[in-house]
Amino acid sequence: MKPDTRQKAVILFSGGLDSSTVLAIAQKEGYSCYCLSFQYGQKQTVELEKARQAAIANKVSSHLVLNLDLDKIGGSALTDDIEVPKNREEDGSIPITYVPARNIIFLSHAIAWAEVLGAKNIFIGVNAVDYSGYPDCRPEFLDAFSRMANLGTRAGVEEDKKLCIQAPLLRMSKAEIIRTGMKLGVNYAKTHSCYDPTGNKACGNCDSCILRSRGFREAGISDPTEYADKN
Fold this sequence. Notes:
Blueprint: E1 8-12, H1 17-28, E2 32-39, H2 46-57, E3 62-67, H3 102-117, E4 121-123, H4 139-151, H5 154-157, E5 164-166, H6 174-183, H7 207-219
Parallel strand pairs: 1-2, 1-4, 2-3, 4-5
Helix pairs in contact: 1-6, 6-7
């Protein structure tokens, strides 16, 4: 077997629509992809099984699942005994589904793994257009985190190993993301986005389901998601 000479990249990978599209983009660009997922005390653990299946199907170089007990901190409808809001009116406030500092925590682990792997690139599927108002999905956050990462790591202070956080979906609408993924062969029927699933079925009415459903509709593509209910 020939050695893999491709550049390595760490992909933050939830098994959802956005991270699956990011993985496809990174693979198209020729990276050897190392997917990183988290069991962080989230209620929607079905996403981890979707991530495992997708990692195998896409023949990634490695898939690492780390355990984080963010449910012990709580403070989010995704990790705490708080009801997931349904059919929420968008009012500009940060919703209760925001997990405190989640992307800061996830990216920190991704950078640590990237240092060990010798990978310069970390891919994340954040989006600042069709999103739920999370502060850690904004370009200002990514810019600041990138500067911090290169100040506080060995890789960052060695000139030839600057770390780069790539967010290829940042300026895309959900419809644009879906069209991009379809062109790259992403099987969205195998992805999971729902915050409050019933078994393997999406609820249909949480913020994530609404954004996903609207994205398929605006893209003019049939939504393959199986919903338990959708108003």
